[in-house]
């Protein structure tokens, strides 16, 4: 999964986004070292083996996507005993590595003693990690995903130390507190401090949108392992560019790096995997594609969302995306060029 001596590019878990079809689609690039699945919640009952495999269907295929990308299962919960039971079930279901989510900032999760809520109780972070560590064989990695703290970034020193004491194999640290949510900026220097003090492998996460961001993050943290989430969705070329910077992939030709993303090709790839993993639902597929384009648009990766957001069928959506690219609507939604493309798509005779 994670080799401490080898650089890595990791696909982040994002609830409702990076599910099995998306992991399969993004994994085709060959840029990622492994992916972390969306969290499996462990509340009052421990999920059974069938639930675990339904949540991470790659476990039925050796824990890998169809292209061979390893997938790490992630558990979320605050009770050490139940988390240990869940880890044992997950291992029996085929999980080769377990990640523990102490970073989710969602209020609904935090209110129910999960995710970043545990950052306020570092000894319990240690207890959960230790319980899970004891529940699976020594050869099964147990990692922890953290934020800098609940509302103060200095808390990371204590929380990370507790996770290490519990037996974490490596840590992934997102450079924000829970209180900060996803508001910029991410603070990378504390991540580097954790790496230096603990001597554990540390995966740096947060606000890596461009190759320039990656370089700054690497310089500030000293890390050689990086997790990409929203940045990989906003620009699907970014993982391969980062992998090339780390010596894990061939250099990306400048012409390719400067060319607009071929969103139609990216969407068709995802459509293919959605059809393999989920029951047929044309409307659901269109909503998924719009979700991806909306995320990309919010972060500057797709300038034509205003053009395509009202399209209702899959064929029309893909045609609209092709038209946006061919007509050059790579400008802000309110620009004259984008308005021109919208007029073309609705049949205006001025095109």
From TrEMBL:
Enzyme class: oxidoreductase
InterPro entries: Aldolase_TIM (IPR013785), DUS-like_FMN-bd (IPR035587), DusC (IPR032886), tRNA_hU_synthase_CS (IPR018517)
Keyword tRNA processing: yes
Gene3D superfamilies in the cross-refs: Aldolase class I
Database matches in CDD domains: DUS_like_FMN
Keywords associated with the record: Flavoprotein, FMN, NADP, Oxidoreductase, RNA-binding, tRNA processing, tRNA-binding
Domain annotation DUS-like FMN-binding: ranges: 11-246
Cofactor(s) needed by this chain: FMN
EC identifiers of the protein: 1.-.-.-
Region forming the signal peptide: none
Alphabetized GO MF terms: flavin adenine dinucleotide binding; tRNA binding; tRNA dihydrouridine synthase activity
Protein name: tRNA-dihydrouridine synthase C
Species of the source: Urbifossiella limnaea
UniProt lineage: Bacteria, Pseudomonadati, Planctomycetota, Planctomycetia, Gemmatales
Gene designation per UniProt: dusC_2
């Amino acid at each position: 999964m994670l080799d401490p001596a080898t650089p890595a590019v990791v696909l982040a878990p994002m609830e409702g986004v990076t599910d099995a079809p998306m992991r399969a689609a993004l994994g085709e690039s060959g840029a990622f070292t492994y992916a972390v699945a969306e969290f499996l919640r462990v509340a009052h009952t421990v999920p059974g083996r069938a639930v675990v495999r339904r949540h991470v269907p790659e476990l039925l295929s050796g824990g890998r996507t169809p292209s061979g990308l390893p997938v790490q299962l992630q558990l979320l919960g605050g009770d050490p005993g139940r988390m240990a039971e869940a880890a044992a079930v997950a291992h029996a279901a085929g999980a080769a590595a377990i990640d523990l989510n102490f970073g989710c900032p969602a209020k609904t999760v935090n209110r129910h003693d999960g995710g970043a809520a545990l950052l306020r109780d570092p000894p319990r972070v240690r207890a959960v990690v230790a319980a899970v560590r004891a529940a699976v064989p020594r050869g099964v990695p147990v990692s922890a995903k953290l934020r800098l703290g609940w509302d103060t970034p200095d808390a990371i020193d204590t929380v990370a130390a507790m996770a290490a004491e519990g037996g974490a194999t490596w840590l992934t640290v997102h450079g924000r507190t829970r209180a900060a949510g996803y508001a910029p900026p991410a603070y990378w220097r504390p991540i580097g401090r954790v790496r230096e003090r603990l001597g554990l492998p540390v995966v740096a996460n947060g606000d890596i949108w461009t190759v320039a961001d990656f370089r700054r993050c690497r310089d500030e943290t000293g890390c050689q392992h990086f997790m990409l989430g929203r940045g990989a969705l906003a620009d699907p070329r970014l993982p391969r560019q980062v992998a090339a910077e780390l010596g894990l992939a061939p250099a990306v030709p400048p012409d390719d790096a400067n060319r607009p993303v071929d969103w139609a090709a990216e969407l068709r790839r995802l459509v293919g995997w959605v059809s393999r993993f989920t029951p047929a639902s044309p409307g659901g597929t269109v909503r998924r594609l719009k979700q991806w384009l909306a995320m990309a648009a919010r972060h500057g990766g797709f300038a034509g969302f205003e053009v395509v957001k009202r399209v209702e069928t899959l064929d029309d959506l893909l045609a609209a995306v092709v038209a946006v690219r061919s007509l050059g609507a790579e400008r802000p939604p309110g620009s004259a060029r984008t308005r021109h493309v919208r007029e073309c798509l609705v049949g205006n005779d001025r095109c």
